[in-house]
Amino acid sequence: MTFIALITNTIMMGQNMFSGTTDLEVIANEWENLTLSNVKDGSLVSMLDCFNKKWPTWMLKSAVKTMKKGVVGRDTHNNGQIVVHNKPKDGFVSVDWYGNAERHEFMRACYWKRSNGHRLLGIYFGGTDNYPNIHFVCFYDYDMKRHTLTPEPQIIDGFRTTEDRKFYYDLPEEGKNLQISEFGSRGHFLHHFKWDGMKPVFSESMKIEDNDEEHCDEDE
Hints:
Blueprint lengths: L1 H17 L5 H7 L13 H11 L3 H12 L3 E5 L4 E6 L4 E6 L7 E9 L5 E9 L6 E10 L4 E4 L13 E6 L7 E7 L2 E9 L4 E10 L2 E5 L4
Antiparallel strand pairs: 1-2, 2-3, 3-4, 4-5, 5-6, 6-7, 8-9, 9-10, 10-11, 11-12
Helix pairs in contact: 3-4
């Protein structure tokens, strides 16, 4: 009986956690078309808090809660099933769910300081529940004077998910450069982007084969 009760409680906690959360597919379809206003400031927690008010998710809720508590490093929620890694010094936070093997969702977020005094915010969502292998990044420009987050969906040109290609973003936990892994009919590629003061700019591509790396042309 105790074992059955434990399973029931775990299921209920999971249901409560996901209650009211926005489907990732909804966010992927809507974020490009809406500028967010009344953002308190350019801190990562304020920008994520504003995003979460428009599209609430358990991931951003957990991240904002940890950040507002002032926790640096690892924090856990929901009996350790949610793991938050907060790195305020680097302007980076990540959230993962380890509740069961059938559902896995995660979030990564960071921001860059732009040469014009603005911020570039990146929020990377991924998940396998209902919509297998949905992965996308929401890029926003934060205007310090207007307190707005304006979508910049084309900031990484030419790297979109198609029927035979999948892209996975590696937002920088340290430093400013960005990496994108590509998997498809051509194989596995790693694309490097260097920060130029305003945005990540394509630098080079590496083809990954049998643990060996070889350079390939950008236009291949």
